[in-house]
Design brief:
With 202 residues, the chain is of the alpha+beta class. The chain is built from 6 helices and 8 strands; from the N terminus they run ααααβββββββααβ.
């Protein structure tokens, strides 16, 4: 379904208008249809990237930490101290503003590593992560209010898009966000989409 929406976006404006007047848009996932144009553009770029590792790769907690790991958040959990960080951020050479990053989640008994996509543009800042065969598209508002529901997203976003601010409390970064061109007035929302199936090799 998401592939269909991205294909629709790629059509000429006249073709898109004809489809909107019909019933084809109504058959697309409602959440996807509600994405802003700029956000949908980033999601469609991510569809063409290597697949997200939604569940992550579990390993023994004694797994050595990778070079360049930056711990962003520490909290207590039922499995002891939970530490979340990022490493290996890579810009997509074919898709400006889109990055991939490895997210490291460590507790006393295991380590999970997953791959996220991060959109750094001023019009569509976002984190795209995976969970159980779904894409979680979180549109962010750098420079806006910070709360428990968006703090980790913001920490990861700042660490990838503006590494010099990695680890800083995002609630303190509103002036920096304005300086970088982010309005601080964007609407934050999360959309849950079904991840497209991997393409089959001939």
């Amino acid at each position: 379904m998401l592939n269909r929406l991205c294909a629709l976006r790629a059509r000429p404006p006249a073709a898109r208008l004809r489809l909107r007047r019909g019933r084809q848009v109504g058959s697309l996932p409602r959440a996807a249809a509600e994405l802003s144009g700029a956000a949908l553009a980033v999601v469609c770029l991510a569809v063409g990237s290597p697949p997200l590792r939604a569940a992550g790769d579990a390993a023994d907690s004694r797994t050595p930490r990778p070079p360049g790991l930056v711990i962003l958040q520490r909290s207590e959990s039922v499995n002891g101290l939970k530490q979340i960080g990022v490493f290996g951020a890579r810009a997509d050479a074919q898709r400006p503003g889109l990055w991939s990053v490895q997210v490291w989640e460590e507790t006393d008994d295991r380590v999970i590593v997953a791959t996220d996509r991060i959109g750094c543009s001023a019009t569509a800042p976002m984190r795209i992560t995976g969970s159980g065969g779904q894409l979680l598209v979180r549109e962010l508002n750098p420079g806006g209010a910070i709360h428990s529901g968006n703090r980790l997203d913001q920490l990861i976003w700042w660490a990838v898009c503006h590494p010099s601010q990695a680890g800083r409390d995002p609630a303190s970064l509103a002036p920096e966000a304005r300086r970088l061109g982010y309005s601080g007035q964007l609407t934050e929302q999360q959309q849950v989409l079904r991840a497209p199936a991997p393409s089959r090799q001939p």
